[in-house]
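Worked Example 4.2. Consider the chain below.
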Amino acid sequence: MARTHSLDGLMKWLRRDEWREAFAEVLDHHLLPACSKADVTVEKLPSIIGEHWFMILSGCAFEDFLSRDLDDDRNIVDDYTDR
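Applying the procedure from the previous section yields the following C-alpha cells:
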C-alpha cells in the first residue's frame, strides 16, 4: 500500500530553481484560460475558490508536469530519481 507522504520528496524537488519556472508555466497553461475568461489572476484564485480547491487544481497541473519532457528533454521524475 502506498504511503501518504510518498510524493513529499518529489514535491520538495519541484521547489528547486531549475523546476520552479517550468512548473509555473504548466500551472498557467491549466489555469490561465479560465482565469482570463473570469477576469481574475491566478494569484487571486485561492481567495476566490478557496485554498482547498486551488490545491486540487494545482495537483492536476502537478500530475501533468510529472509526465512532461521539457524542450531540453529533461523530466522532473527522471531528475529526482537520478539524484
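The chain has five helices and no strands. The chain has a mean pLDDT of 92. Compare this with Example 4.1 before moving on.
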